[in-house]
Amino acid sequence: MRVPRVGHQRQEQLLRLLAVIGAIAVAYLLWRAFGSDRVHVGSRTKRGVGPDDDPEFLRKLAERGELQSGEKVVAYITGEGLKTLDATRDTFSMHEIDPTLDSFDTEFAKEVSV
Known about the structure:
Layout lengths: L7 H28 L21 H7 L21 H4 L12 H7 L7
């Protein structure tokens, strides 16, 4: 009885597949050994808070030394407010200005300290 030989091309394909499986296994073992405690997966994930959702964002930057005394910080809203317009209607005022720094500085000359 003669067993058919696997062709050279088929052997290369099998070797590549084994190499990929081996690389995935090594990567997983390295991650488990050195990195799994640094990356939180699943229900243990603690989501970060974006600057737009953190009222203490500027204060935290100043405490870390990322904002210097006298440094200007510009905050602007990129949304149209349609989702929260009723809830926020009396908390803001509209300002239409030319799209220049001088126009912004003139309209919003008030400085805020942190």
